[in-house]
Write a structure and sequence with these properties.
By secondary structure, the chain is α+β, with helices and mostly antiparallel strands. It has two domains: about 70 residues, Pleckstrin-homology domain (PH domain)/Phosphotyrosine-binding domain (PTB) (PH-domain like, Roll), CATH 2.30.29; about 200 residues, no CATH class. It has nine helices and seven strands, in the order E-E-E-E-E-E-E-H-H-H-H-H-H-H-H-H. It has a seven-stranded antiparallel beta sheet with strand order 4-3-2-1-7-6-5, covered by helices on one side.
């Protein structure tokens, strides 16, 4: 904290006090019993311009209206110290605000990348289910085209988009090689997951307070994988698929709780339970995904 004697026109002589957050000007009033009163309190965040004059510092700031105050300081050394201290606090505030703005911009990009990536993950799991048993290659080709579109959409959005090569998968589908297509699909799913794992390791204090942040996005992707794994497991008659439902519901509840949203376990569970009863038709899988996406959309808004 820095203090010095200063004069402010129409107020008088008093004490100027500077902290990292505020500039406060105190004056003493009263004829017999002097009492200290706060004549000005200017938040660093409200300062619009700062100018050094020959005898003081001139500050334009936002109050109820835009005001300009000149604090006259007779000691030239103190004047320099006060000016430099205010300038330093103002510069620090601007740096913080710039970082916050960058974090919000990244957050918006991340939300768009996540939406496109969820589409890509869903499409890849649809391919895995399509490649199980007798293959409908026409459907596989359509799904592959959709995957490419999802990937292009993500890449146009941001450099944060997961990078993966789909050439091997395209060749396997074109040559009607189901085993190779399955392997290539799993590889791409792994690459997408690893990409979000790398993002979640990024340290950014400002991003931590936003939703989605890097950790959120990884957890959303993981929940999406679990939901699709349930559908895939039921398609291939894997009994373990039912055991994953509670894991999936807990993941969705954790995500909504982080963003201070009302966790809707029933909203997330109902479509999955319906899928168990009715089987893994395209409609039941789509409905399950829609229930998940409705929960996640709240996180992204």
């Amino acid at each position: 904290m820095l203090t010095c004697e200063a004069y402010l026109a129409e107020v008088g002589t008093g004490t100027l006090e500077l902290t990292e957050q505020h500039l406060t000007f105190y004056v003493k009033k009263g004829f017999l019993t002097k009492r200290t009163e706060k004549a000005r309190e200017i938040s660093i965040t409200d300062i619009m311009t700062l100018t050094r004059t020959d005898h003081g510092v001139e500050i334009a700031w936002r109050g109820i209206e835009v005001l300009t105050d000149t604090f006259v300081i007779s000691d030239s050394k103190l004047l320099s110290e006060v000016y430099e201290a205010i300038a330093k606090s103002l510069e620090q505030y601007k740096r913080v605000e710039a970082k916050k703005a960058d974090a919000k911009k990244t957050r918006d990009e991340l939300a768009k990348v996540l939406r496109a990536s969820l589409k890509a993950v869903n499409t890849l799991f649809d391919l895995l289910m399509c490649l199980n048993g007798r293959v409908d290659w026409s459907k596989a080709e359509t799904l592959f085209k959709s995957l490419q579109e999802n990937s292009d959409e993500a890449k146009k959005t941001s450099a944060l988009a997961p990078a993966f090569e789909s050439g091997e998968l395209g060749s396997a589908i074109e040559d009607r090689l189901p085993e190779e297509a399955l392997k290539a699909s799993y590889n791409i799913l792994q690459e997408i997951h690893e990409s979000f794992e790398q993002l979640s390791a990024t340290k950014d204090d400002f991003m931590k307070e936003l939703h989605p942040n890097y950790v959120d996005t990884l957890e959303v992707i993981e929940a999406c994988y679990v939901l699709n794994d349930i559908a895939l497991g039921m398609t291939v008659a894997d009994e373990k698929a039912k055991e994953e439902i509670d894991v999936y519901i807990q993941m969705v509840e954790d995500l909504t709780r982080k963003a201070n949203l009302k966790a809707g376990a029933n909203q997330a569970r109902s479509p999955v339970d319906k899928m168990i009863v009715e089987g893994t038709s395209d409609n039941s899988i789509t409905e399950s995904r829609r229930g998940f996406e409705e929960q996640i959309e709240k996180l992204l808004s």
